[in-house]
Design goal:
Butyryl-CoA Dehydrogenase, subunit A, domain 2; Butyryl-Coa Dehydrogenase, subunit A, domain 1; Butyryl-CoA Dehydrogenase, subunit A, domain 3; globular; 11 helices; 3-stranded mixed beta sheet; 9 strands
Length: about 375
């Protein structure tokens, strides 16, 4: 990280140092194997639980650490320097828990948050469907109330931590006639009858993370597992994205930083024409641009986190900005890192090949970067409507 004063507290620095050591000692030795074989990092998550880091984002009253948004994103960023397949498996727990944190009753929070905080259980977020990703209002999964239960039918697609998580926050239509206002959110436990999983997807990147379909076939969910009230699902999904997208940006910042670190180290030792390649002005300028992009992505990501932590009500624009900017930076910087390595960068023996593959998902999940630009653009239209 560059010598920029980001106003990091002593507590935040301790979290960064703890995860940085964990990344070097535990993630780096196994990341290539996890990637090649598509192994879910369950052992690493259990170790993070033993370090009391799984509940970093959960309030103390529910057994968590009670850290703010910035601290959590710093943790995700630091882990992402070493492998975002691991960091997204870690961060997806927060995504799955966010609807509970934002909209659940105190009784629901007391039941579901403590086991997530301890790492006894893991969470996942069930929104995306085969024909509805960014278009939340277009979801087709239904929830029909019968007595004291809701009967869920439908399929969710590309769900991170799918099949591995124990607690799922699932969005379904309870009133089709009301469109987006007819979507509701439910807590569904893994062993619920009628709830099953598709195959683990074989992906380009983040191969260590588990991505599966969630399949609901007359799945009976207790009515008490409805979060809030019927029709609150769309608003809950949007509020969740507002606070979760900086986490994706943090993955991008961390991944880009990791690729920059590898590129600079390599450029200092790789020699051509009798001198290190970092002495080549063209390459030195490339590294300079990479470093500047990383720091600007970090700046807007931290700014978004601080805006959320301030209690600001409307954070959609800055949340979307940091998500798409940091995602684009990660793709750009990892591509340049491969270029710095030359032919070696194309080989799996070196980490930048994996980093480049991993980076692509950051421009896609939790709303494509084109959708993020729409959100920013629409916010500008509203802001300038009176001019």
């Amino acid at each position: 990280m560059a010598n920029i004063d980001w106003g990091i507290t002593e507590e935040q620095q301790e979290i960064i140092n703890l995860i940085d050591d964990f990344g070097k000692e535990r993630i780096v030795p196994v990341r290539a194997e996890l990637d090649e074989k598509g192994i879910f990092p369950s052992e690493l998550l259990k170790e993070l639980a033993q370090m009391d880091l799984m509940g970093l984002y959960i309030p103390e009253e529910y057994g968590g650490f009670g850290a703010d948004q910035l601290s959590f994103c710093m943790a995700v960023e630091t882990m992402s320097k070493y492998c975002i397949g691991v960091s997204v498996s870690y961060a997806a727990n927060a995504l799955g828990a966010d609807p509970i944190l934002l909209g659940a009753s105190d009784e629901q929070k007391k039941k579901y948050l403590p086991p997530l905080a301890s790492g006894e259980k893991w969470a996942a977020y069930g929104l995306t469907e085969p024909n509805a990703g960014s278009d939340v209002a277009g979801i087709q999964t239904t929830a029909v109330k019968k007595g004291d239960k809701y009967i869920l039918n439908g399929t969710k697609q590309w769900i991170t931590n799918g099949g591995e998580a124990d607690i799922y926050t699932v969005f379904a239509v309870t009133n089709k006639a009301r469109g987006a206002r007819g979507v509701s959110c439910f807590i569904v436990e893994k062993d619920t009858p009628g709830f099953s999983f598709g195959k683990k997807e074989d992906k380009l990147g983040i191969r260590a993370s588990a991505t599966r379909e969630l399949i609901f076939e007359d799945c009976e969910v207790p009515a008490e597992n409805l979060i809030g009230r019927e029709g609150m699902g769309f608003l809950l999904a949007m509020k969740t994205f507002d606070i979760s997208r900086p986490g994706i940006a943090a993955q991008g910042v961390g991944l880009a930083q990791g690729a920059l670190d590898e590129a600079v180290k390599y450029a200092k030792v790789r020699k051509q024409f009798g001198k290190p390649i970092i002495a080549n002005q063209g390459l030195l300028w490339m590294l300079s641009e990479m470093a500047t992009k990383v720091e600007t992505a970090r700046a807007i990501t931290y700014a978004a986190c601080r805006t959320i932590d301030s209690g600001a009500k409307d954070v959609s624009k800055v949340s979307a900005m940091c998500k798409y900017y940091a995602g684009d930076v990660a793709m750009s910087v990892t591509t340049d890192a491969v270029q710095v390595f030359g032919g070696y960068g194309f080989m799996k023996e070196y980490p930048v090949e994996k980093m480049m593959r991993d980076a692509k998902i950051l421009q896609i999940y939790e709303g494509t970067n084109q959708i993020q630009r729409d959100i920013v653009g629409n916010a500008l239209v509203k802001e300038y409507a009176s001019l």
